[in-house]
Specification:
This protein has 24 helices and two strands.
Amino acid sequence: MSLSSSERPAAGTYAGTAAIVAFFLVFLFYPLLYVFRKSFIIDGGFSMTFFRQLLENPVMRESIVNSLVIGATVTIISAGLGFLFATLMVKTDMPFKGLWGNMLLAPIILPPFVAAIGVKYIFGKFGMVNSLLMQLDMIEPRHPIDWLGQPFWGVVILEALHLFPIMYLNIVGSFSLIDPSLEEAARGLGAKGLSLFRSITMPLLAPGFFAGSSIVFIWAFTDLGTPLLFEYRAVAPVQILNAVQAAQVNPIGYALVVVVLAVTVIFFAASKFMFGHRRFEMAAFGRTSGTLTRLSPLVKLLLVVFMTAFVLVSIIPHISVALVSFSQDWFMTVLPDAWTTEFYAKVFSHPIAALSMKNSMLFSSLSVILVLVMGGVIAYYLARKKFRGKEVLDACAMLPLAVPGVVLAFGYVQCFFGTPIDPRMNPVVLLVISYAVRRLPLVVRALYAGFQQSSVTLEEASQCLGASPGTTLRLITFPLIRANFLGAAILAFAFSMLEVSDSLILAMQEKFYPMTKAIYMLAGRLGDGGYIASAMGMLGVLLLAGAIMIAQRLIGSRMGDLFRA
């Protein structure tokens, strides 16, 4: 079978692929290989000394265990919530589905890194909750309840609230691919209840379920910002941050990075191996709409109460950050004594805050340009070309999902030491590249979906009429994927603005602080630092919320595919 002109490999295809692979070799594989070499090679020979020291160090050992437990706990909670809400939305006639569907996505717009600031004002020893209990004479002022005395649960709860929408989107997407006639046929053969779920529904949900789980686990396992703001330092990402400056003196940090990377890659690879190549094809015609479980009026009422209560609880962090950002002064009172907007003004006048906003705008804009060029080329090659090494290119594009930001940033700091792009001197280049690398899977998926939805015959017709490849791209291809292109650009920009791990590690000088590094530094300062940080966080929330809503309209029903491993 002969290939069409658009599928036939050309020299430009191989040249473009080689350029992209070269980029990955320098800015993804080389930093990781450098860390591996420093971990295993001592005095020119292979050694496991640093790993033995790592396991013998009680702090490091405890940190690894804590991070594993956080990742597992957050994943279990997120999976349970995601499955519960997806089942209610897809399988029942629950009222107000449109409203609940939007509200369930609200927690994803507030990074737990920012939420932790507001939560400390609500549940701190002299925060809102204890002040209310004191006014009700339920506790004595001298003995406030230490709600945040166990920061582990604070980290877990905030991360689970932030990440369960990813599980929800994945499971809803999997439900939408299931042909209801399969379940009806199983019922006709006598299967029902748990038997039906175990034999039919769960196997068909498994790919999306585990794809979401891998993202949630890796994100929670390697989250740096939330434990830092809760001052919970006995976790692996914080130890990696501490090891950045001490790596030349205490190389045990290299071994810790390798262990963290090994855990994430193994988890990611296991999910891919078990479900990445399994396809569950459904009939294209004759599919039924499925039978919804009819709920009684009482059950509907109880569900409305439950959903309302859950939504209110899930947006407590949003409310708390908003309250802090508008408060004049808030200490030992149920609500702030006075309200003000001055801290929003200070975001653009405070020397650290204002400069960080400008920096983030610049870094994120440059990273979007880079990732759109790379992502566009990769998506075009994957969707339109057939050539050797296509699988390698696809794997490279998705690999950043398995490489945590703390690992990549640590590798950059160490392997580019003493070079013109040493982040200790000027981190701009590496910040832009790290933002782009981290957003690449999202952009590739969005653009690849656009190419899949547009017919290649239009491009072939343009070329047959004598148009050059550049003219075809400008007049035919780009207009067809414009919505996906803009949606990917908007999401990439917003998520880059709120990138935490790379920013905290790579930006070492105040003049190069991006937005999230400034939020962290200001949140730890006395006076108005926390209020300005909250105002910056709220601006970030508004930016991300707007980006997600616009991208949802542009990309449509395939939006959930962007959050799959």
